């Protein structure tokens, strides 16, 4: 899911159009300091499902320094078999696992979600970009389980002109049906509802078009909000809400480059998606579990999408794997007992640790918004914002004297602390030790997002022959992928 | 009161440290589109108490174009006798009226609040700037009713180094005592609790110092929040909460120039105090009246501090004066019946209508943050923000082609609509008619904030002789006040 911190009424969106999410928060626990592991979707999702930083699980590139990479159609890599995904582990405890929506961990056969622990899939392997002409580029397939059942813009319409598409309704129905079936068969389940209506090109179904003060993006948010309300009510109606842990969060900060028509809000945080400023990585987050989580709770626990891996295992009575470094922590003590667990947050961009947060302090070891070249083309990750020496358009190294911010007094990262201050000296001593330990023990995984090849695109996904939708791939021509940011 | 839209947890402050205000909102009605009449304290307060724009009630200057003016110690003017203040009118319905805190409508004898309808006063006529040496400048007096009882920094301590001052506690106790007395005597009352702990120099009492993640400013917010909680609980304890209408709002947007140590937050809105961007004029606002206002209400009614004049009269069964233009409207239909009243919001800076809001659209006829000269001294009303052609450092006239924003899709005023678009044409037709009517019927009042004279400072306020605190004024030397912004 893709939504900015500031997109929820509960987080101060001025139109306050998310009554269901706001109610979810008032019945559950709101996390104010929750992060993604990467300011881009593929690596964020890989981190959520593996409990590990992308630099460990391979969802990064070494084609350039500190570059964001993901899984476009021509990507050769994907989630390595050596990674253990949450559904694989949950299976051992008898869980049935379903992913609805965008997978984004690789689309070649070996990366199929049903090969990585999921029992069911409804959705697409890549973003819903398009439409394509099926010559230079094939349209993105939509899968049910092992096989494709159609393609976006062909069998699953998205009207780019009006923004109309009923995909969120389909994804909602899939979720409700899955939950009903599991309840009927008394089977524990894990549902990963990975929708993408707020990802450009943004869409909403007819009923929601024009329903928001915020334009099309707001329409999409309203539909997602409405769907989440329906899912929670469904759990209650089936009598399993006190037996079902629900967590709402987002892949990365709102993509401000898509504003104002298709871009969300990161509230007062700096910049957006693609950056390691707060706007790129701090996420809306709500835990809901009636009867267990005290209603109306608010937590300042530093959390991360990777924690959902460890927390989910804990809920299932399982231990995280001990043969590898797991970055996610078990949040249950924070959620159920209000404890505050001391742990750092690392802000990675590709192969570089750009920043780290310890307590209320955040130290930037590198700063970069995007290059002058990209910026001069109008690609702006920080529209209307400019903090001198911070939102830099060249990669600036601060490893000897990191830029230090106090996120309580200065959530917008506008006022670096003076290097000469006692506060700076004392805090950096603590942070340096954390960083040193992190770097010393870091064993990067084999980077998966280096090589691109048009031959690997979704030309002939499994099932295409039944639909007469197989396309002829071009000759293989592997190249280094180009990652401009 | 001085607080930014983004300073409340209910409006998305990331530290979420205002449990009492948030609860007030959940028990009452949150206004998302509520404004001040001026982005500076004196004119804002004059507008609240008269129900009229500062350009009508005289709280503006003609010394320069579009300049903010207020009531420093050397101001000669103040609230004219010809203006009818809310407490003067409420008196007719038997109300006892008290102001606690900063008056700011003039400090010379004829402007005394007890000459303008208030029965009681505890507080100061001006901001708590200082300390002064009582030679070049006298320290600001604190009054009880007609006479001064001491001066800031002398009898009422403010420790600028630690930020400690117990003033909010004193103001709180004054409020609780006043309410108790009125309840005991079964007397209807109007309490204007006009505190200023979040105005630089920001202060908090010892118990609250260091209590916030946000630094000293946050400590002050916490203390105010706590005090408001105590006032509401007091009303409940006395059994008069269902008989008492309470409204919380702020004078103007947070002063971002005081950030990060003493500055608040305007959330995602553009710029701050002194400007006519949303950050300068959109205010946090909560109406509370248990048993009458539906709990948890949220209103998109365009509201203004001037409406509190008309709404309060309506609550008291009184009509607003018919011999003058009143800008405030009665909000009760919006508050009690959820109606949406169509009305524009005018954004004035001094003698100039800078912008107007109609529905979700805001048209800027003039843009200005501050001058290059001031900006180059480090005075920045929009720190970290820069919207080309919008946050201008020269006064830019757009009267022939106003800059138009859609505040739903673009609350941050970053993306002016294309002049060529149909949307622009259609909307500007509507807005132009509103502006034309407004300008045609506008009769500006005599400007009160043009002349300054060191001789009128608080040298010898009434009561000074009893305390031995009378000071010798210098020779009168009236000059045009200098208003740089």
UniProtKB/TrEMBL annotation, chains A, B:
Give the co-factor note: Binds 1 Ca(2+) ion per subunit.
* A single Gene Ontology CC term: lysosome
**Name of this protein:** N-acetylgalactosamine-6-sulfatase
User: Which residues are reported to carry the modification 3-oxoalanine (Cys)?
Assistant: 41
As cofactor, the record names: Ca(2+)
- The glycosylation sites annotated in the UniProt record are 166, 386
The GO terms describing molecular function are: arylsulfatase activity; metal ion binding; N-acetylgalactosamine-6-sulfatase activity
Annotated active site residues, numbered on this chain, are 41 (nucleophile), 104
The record's subcellular location field reads: Lysosome
PROSITE patterns reported in the protein's UniProt record? SULFATASE_1 (PS00523)
Q: Which Pfam families match?
A: Sulfatase, Sulfatase_C
Please tell me which top-level EC class this enzyme sits in: hydrolase
Reaction(s) catalysed by this chain, per the record, are: Hydrolysis of the 6-sulfate groups of the N-acetyl-D-galactosamine 6-sulfate units of chondroitin sulfate and of the D-galactose 6-sulfate units of keratan sulfate
Which InterPro entries does the entry link to? Alkaline_phosphatase_core_sf, GALNS, Sulfatase, Sulfatase_CS, Sulfatase_N
Question: Hey, what's the signal peptide range on this chain?
Answer: none
The EC code for this enzyme is: 3.1.6.4
Q: Which family does it belong to?
A: Belongs to the sulfatase family.
The record describes its quaternary structure and partners as: Homodimer.
Q: Which CDD domains match?
A: GALNS (cd16157)
Chief location category: other
Occurrences of domain Sulfatase N-terminal (ranges): 3-317
- Lineage of the species this protein comes from: Eukaryota, Metazoa, Chordata, Craniata, Vertebrata
Positions annotated to bind Ca(2+) = 41, 251-252
Instruction: Name the UniProt key words of this record, in alphabetical order.
Output: Calcium, Disulfide bond, Glycoprotein, Hydrolase, Lysosome, Metal-binding, Signal
């Amino acid at each position: 899911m893709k939504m900015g911190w500031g997109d929820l009424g509960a987080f101060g969106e001025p139109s306050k159009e998310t009554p269901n999410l706001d109610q979810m928060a008032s019945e559950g626990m709101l996390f104010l300091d929750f992060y993604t592991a990467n300011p881009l979707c593929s690596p964020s999702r890989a981190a959520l499902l593996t409990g590990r930083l992308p630099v460990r699980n391979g969802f990064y590139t070494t084609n350039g320094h500190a570059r964001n990479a993901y899984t476009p159609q021509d990507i050769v890599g994907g989630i390595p078999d050596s990674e253990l995904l949450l559904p694989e582990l949950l299976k051992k405890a008898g869980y049935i696992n379903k992913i609805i929506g965008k997978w984004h961990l690789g689309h070649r056969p070996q990366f199929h979600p049903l090969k990585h622990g999921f029992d069911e899939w409804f959705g697409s392997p890549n973003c819903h970009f398009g439409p394509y002409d099926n010559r230079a580029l094939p349209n993105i397939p939509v899968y049910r389980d092992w096989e494709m059942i159609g393609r976006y813009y062909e069998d699953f319409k998205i009207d780019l002109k009006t923004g109309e598409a009923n995909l969120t309704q389909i994804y909602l129905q899939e979720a409700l049906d899955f939950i009903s079936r599991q309840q009927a068969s008394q089977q524990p389940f894990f549902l990963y509802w990975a929708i993408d209506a707020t990802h450009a090109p943004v869409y909403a179904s007819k009923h929601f078009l024009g329903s928001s003060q915020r334009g099309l993006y707001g329409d999409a948010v309203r539909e997602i909000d409405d769907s989440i309300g329906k899912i929670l009510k469904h759990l209650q109606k089936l009598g399993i809400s006190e037996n079902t842990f629900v967590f709402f969060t987002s892949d990365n900060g709102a993509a401000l480059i898509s504003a104002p028509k298709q871009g969300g809000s990161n509230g007062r945080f700096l910049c957006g998606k693609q950056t390691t400023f707060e706007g790129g990585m701090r996420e809306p987050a709500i835990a809901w579990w009636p009867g267990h989580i005290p209603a109306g709770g608010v937590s300042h626990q530093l959390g991360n999408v990777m924690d959902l891996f460890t927390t989910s295992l804990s809920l299932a009575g399982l231990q995280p794997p001990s043969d590898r470094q797991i970055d996610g922590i078990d949040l249950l003590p924070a959620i159920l007992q209000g404890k505050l667990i001391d742990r750092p947050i690392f802000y990675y961009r590709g192969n570089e640790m750009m920043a780290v947060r310890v307590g209320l302090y955040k130290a930037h070891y590198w700063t970069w918004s995007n290059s002058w070249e990209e910026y001069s083309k109008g690609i702006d990750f920080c529209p209307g914002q400019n903090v001198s020496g911070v939102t830099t358009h060249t990669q600036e190294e601060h490893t000897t004297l990191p830029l230090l911010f106090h996120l309580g007094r200065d959530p917008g990262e506008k006022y670096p602390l003076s290097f000469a201050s006692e506060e700076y000296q004392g805090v950096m001593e603590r942070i340096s030790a954390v960083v040193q330990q992190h770097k010393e023990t870091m064993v990067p995984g084999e980077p998966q997002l280096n090589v691109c090849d048009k031959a690997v695109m979704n030309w002939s996904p499994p099932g295409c022959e039944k639909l007469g939708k197989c396309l002829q791939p071009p000759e293989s021509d592997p190249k280094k992928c180009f990652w401009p940011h």
